[in-house]
Each structure stands twice: as C-alpha cells, then as structure tokens.
Amino acid sequence: MRFAGVKELKQKTMDIIEASRKEDIIITAYGKPAAILHHITEDDLADYLVENDPAFKARIEDAFTEYGIAGGITADALIEKLGKRLNDE
Fold first, then answer.
1. Sequence spans of domains, the chain
2. What are the backbone angles phi and psi of residue 36, rounded to the nearest 5°?
3. Quick check: 23 and 1 in contact, CB under 8 A?
4. What is the model's pTM?
C-alpha cells in the first residue's frame, strides 16, 4: 500500500493507475486520506455495482425484515413451488 497526493495524481495519473494493479493507493489531500485507488477487473465491476447499489441494498434489507416477520420456506418447498410454476407455463 502506498500514498499519493492529489498533485502527484494529477501529474502521474496513468502511472498511479498502473501501480494500483499491484497494490492499493491511498490518495491524500492536504496530507489527509481522501480516497483509495483499488484496481478492479470487468468482472469485479459488476459485483461492485450490485454490492454498492442503494436500491439493491434496500431490497435485501426489506427481504430480511420480511423474513424475520413471516419466516421462510424450506428448500424442498421452494423447489416444489418453482416446479409447479414451470409446469404451469
């Protein structure tokens, strides 16, 4: 892990992006941490977008709350329910 100031980031953007492939880069502004530059792949991007989508998080929280109130069903019951749904189509 290394640190780079905003000025260095402006002057050496591509070098710092390349360096982020090997290690995280903490970007500082006025000597204080401001951001972290972390290398990701295209596959990682899809995961990141889902994990950090506020609407997705809200749906998961709502589902968890509903599960806590109403409970769930067993895996066998779910398979049976899905089987019936497939047969109806």
1. 2-37, 42-88
2. -125, 130
3. yes
4. 0.59
pLDDT tens per residue, range 2-61: 999 999 999 999 999 999 999 999 999 999 999 999 999 998 999 999 889 999 999 999
Looking up tokens 């892990």 gives 1
Give the contacts of 19 (CB within 8 A, at least 6 positions apart).
2, 25
Q: How far apart are CA 25 and CA 16, in angstroms?
A: 8
What's the rounded Cα separation, in Å, for the pair 44 and 85? 33
Choose among 36, 37, 40: nearest CA to 51: 40
Contact (CB, 8 A) for 28 and 6: yes
Q: Quick one: 2-37 is in which CATH superfamily? A: YefM-like domain (3.40.1620.10)
Closest CA to 28 of 9, 49, 42: 9
